[in-house]
């Protein structure tokens, strides 16, 4: 894949996507950004944002979430997929943040992925939202990058590495949100592929 062509394609995807708010956007504290990103896995961002707003009305600090009643948390986040597992993981994550990081979210990939419920994608999306050069690979990113021939990677790490080779580092932090906004703008596979075919030419 030609680097200049890939950059041109990324720009076209940015223009094609609507300015939708994503789950990691717009929170006033790092822990909220991290928890919302974790909750968004396999769940639409608009659903995640609504649930997150309710969660943070009830638990205003990470310390409050760390001591939360699991049944109450589950009741709030029920609309997200895998809410039972996520209930356990976000409370455990909050406890770890309080106990090991004095309530602050580390801006370090290795330390982030040691937290309960925080995998590669969540850590990278969080770091990118904070301005760090990281690429979060979710289902939208995986599908679009393979469709356009930017990668043949089989794992998140493989895809990340291919994209890091293809794009200059100044683009890395924007790749996830550009592709996710595009993916959420065009939910239908047929409509999405039609635009991707046009972009690919």
Give your account of this protein's structure.
With 201 residues, the chain is mostly helical. The protein has two domains: 3-17 and 135-200, Orthogonal Bundle (Endonuclease Iii, domain 2); 30-129, Orthogonal Bundle (Endonuclease III, domain 1), CATH 1.10.340.30. The chain contains twelve helices and no strands. Helix 2 (30-39) crosses helix 3 (45-58). It is globular and about 55 Å long.
- Number of individual domains: 2
Main sheet specs: none
Tell me the span between the first and last alpha carbons: 12 Å
Secondary structure: helix percent: 55-70%
What is the general shape? globular
| Name of the CATH class of the largest domain | Mainly Alpha
Tell me the β content: under 5%
Number of strands: 0
Radius of gyration: 17 Å
CATH homologous superfamily placement of the largest domain? Hypothetical protein, domain 2
Tally the helices: what do you get? 12
Q: Could you say which structural class the secondary elements and strand pairing correspond to?
A: mainly alpha
Architecture of the largest domain, CATH level 2? Orthogonal Bundle
CATH topology of the largest domain: Endonuclease III, domain 1
Enumerate the spans where pLDDT stays under 50 for 5 or more consecutive residues.
Answer: none
